[in-house]
Amino acid sequence: AQSVAQPEDQVNVAEGNPLTVKCTYSVSGNPYLFWYVQYPNRGLQFLLKYITGDNLVKGSYGFEAEFNKSQTSFHLKKPSALVSDSALYFCAVREGPGNTPLVFGKGTRLSVIA
Amino acid sequence: DAGVIQSPRHEVTEMGQEVTLRCKPISGHDYLFWYRQTMMRGLELLIYFNNNVPIDDSGMPEDRFSAKMPNASFSTLKIQPSEPRDSAVYFCASSMMRNQETQYFGPGTRLLVL
User: Would you call B43 and A32 a contact, using CB atoms and an 8 Å cutoff?
Assistant: First the structure.
């Protein structure tokens, strides 16, 4: 069975500082990995994904994530945080290829303080 | 494109009443997903459809929950009878078969059962 863990419920960072939101996963085969963001009173929005290829994936709003197979991690990063980045971030995984649905983590709330 | 449309956006009902949530996926999308989000349990997949056919409903919590997709542009999630523990935000999401991983979420229906 596939699973994903987000070890931090809350991450606080000062505006302008780099941010990292952590994610580790567990799948039997090749992982397809995703990050989604949820702003208040909104649905989830796709940020980026890793399917294959370069381990560093760039996504929307200046976010990037690094796939690390040996550590089974897919941490989300941004070099310089903005107050507007404050939101709930979800990591998700599925075993690919195939038609199994995504499994989402519990989410990490990011607060960027001015 | 208008995106995934859900109605109603907010629903307040009394215990024992029937609740029907509605979803219109993005035109041309082959997959439709129903999720439930609560503080305690995070984001849970309830059921998903492929080409209007239910594929996996193992996430549906009880027989009180049912979902249908009579055509490619409409789905319903029904709770009968509703209970206070059903209070949550219910999201509908859709995706294209060839890019099934990138799901597009609706704004959600916030359900409160008194």
Answer: no
State how far the Cα of A109 lies from the Cα of B23, in Å rounded to an integer: 27
Quick check: B44 and B57 in contact, CB under 8 A?
Answer: no
Q: In angstroms, how far apart are the furthest CA atoms of chain A?
A: 43
**What is the Cα–Cα distance from A11 to A21, expressed in whole angstroms?**
7
Q: Are B14 and B24 in contact (CB under 8 A)?
A: no
Dihedral-angle region of residue A53 (phi above 0 means left; psi in -120 to 50 means alpha; beta otherwise): left
Tens of pLDDT, residues A41-51: 889 999 999 98
Tokens matching residue B45: 């997949």
B63-66: long-range pairs with CB below 8 Å, 24+: none
Q: Give the Cα separation of B104 and B95 in Å (integer).
A: 6
Residues of A in contact with B21 (CB under 8 A): none
Give the dihedral of Cα atoms B112, B58, B16, B68; nearest 10 deg.
90
Specify the DSSP element, H or E, that contains B50. strand B42-50
CB atoms B45 and A34 under 8 Å: no
- pLDDT tens for residues B67-94? 999 999 999 999 999 999 999 999 999 9
> Which residues of B fall within a CB distance of 8 Å from A99?
50, 55, 100
